[in-house]
Design a protein that fits this description.
Aminopeptidase; about 325 residues; alpha+beta
Length: about 325
């Protein structure tokens, strides 16, 4: 059966895109979430070369591979946000496993890379599951190489040893954002995210401005103020932990943990982690997920050796210089 590539047509393509993305995502998405994400992004992008000749600005190119009957078998997107590192574009490619091996991925990728070259990108980034040999080989054939490895871990809360909650330092004052003055504490959260993000191995590019940070952090699907836990020292923010709730699987994703430098090495990060587990158990959550960069050994040790998270397939970040 022959396929051809066309630009996405919205909203009618949302269901097909969600189905294709769900073949590569850890948690399912749906057309409503995709539409809500699009509503946060300006409809018209603007790419340009900065004073150093590096690609800057923001835009995206989205395409699908469909047959004569309109059935979508593959989806691709090339994009950069204003905070993406200069010169770089990010790529995502998803092909229905039932239609792999028929050249659909190559058809899509050729157009994505042509768009990147046309706009002057110097580096392309793509994420591939570390247990997906087919996709790894595909990326390697197109000239990508592994830059870093992100591990994924899962905690089955039905099997969690609740005696570990006694390790929590109850002297640390932890309060959900829902019980605080959001106008005041959101600014403090933003500064903490900004400070601690630069400590994450592999972080590159600029940080969000405040409004974009709210859209892509506090307003993520599954984010609620009661699931944003703040460790406070009076009116000072020491650290925080942020959970996302997935109703379809009754699970939570540990989106972020951060502790300000002057409060580190005092057990605050571990206490925040334990408090999120306690909250999830209280709410009857089935399991929690999290990711750690392979170079973030201290947090990986806490999650797996001390809290009992178990390893599951993670992701390779693969890069290609143009």
């Amino acid at each position: 059966m022959s396929y051809f590539v066309r630009n996405v047509q919205l909203p009618q393509d949302y269901d097909s895109i969600a189905n294709l993305l769900n073949t590569i995502l850890s948690e399912v998405t749906n057309s409503e979430e995709l539409a809500a994400e699009d509503a946060k992004i300006p409809t018209t992008g603007s790419l340009y070369l900065n004073a150093d000749g590096q690609l800057s600005g923001f835009d995206r190119h989205r395409i699908v591979a469909v047959n004569a009957q309109g059935k979508a078998a593959g989806y691709g997107i090339s994009w950069r946000a204003p905070w993406t590192a200069a010169g770089e574009l990010n790529q995502t490619l998803a092909v229905d496993p039932a239609y792999r091996g028929h050249g659909i991925g190559s058809m899509l990728y050729e157009q994505l890379e042509a768009w990147a070259v046309q706009n002057g990108a110097s580096r392309l980034n793509i994420e591939v599951r570390d247990d997906d040999e087919h996709s790894i080989r595909f990326a390697e054939r197109w000239g990508y190489q592994v830059e870093r490895h992100t591990f994924e871990s899962v905690l089955d809360l039905n099997l969690f040893d609740t005696s570990r909650l006694s390790w929590m330092d109850r002297e640390v004052h932890i309060v959900p954002l829902s019980e605080l003055d959001a106008a005041v504490w959101e600014e403090k959260l933003y500064e903490l995210y900004k400070e601690t993000s630069y400590d994450i191995p592999g972080f590159s590019g600029d940080f969000f401005n405040f409004d974009d940070w709210k859209k892509w952090t506090l307003q993520l699907p599954g984010s609620k103020p009661e699931h944003m836990l703040l460790a406070c020292d009076g009116d000072q923010l020491m650290g925080m932990a942020h959970l996302l709730y997935y109703e379809s699987t009754n699970s939570m994703y540990h989106e972020y943990t951060g502790v300000k430098k002057e409060y580190r090495c005092k057990g605050i990060g571990k206490t925040l982690k334990l408090r999120t587990i306690e909250l999830a158990i209280q709410q009857g959550i089935s399991y929690m997920r999290t990711h750690n960069d392979s170079l973030n050994r201290p947090m990986l040790k806490i999650n797996r050796d001390e809290l009992g998270f178990k390893a599951v397939p993670g992701n390779y970040k693969m890069i290609k210089d143009l």
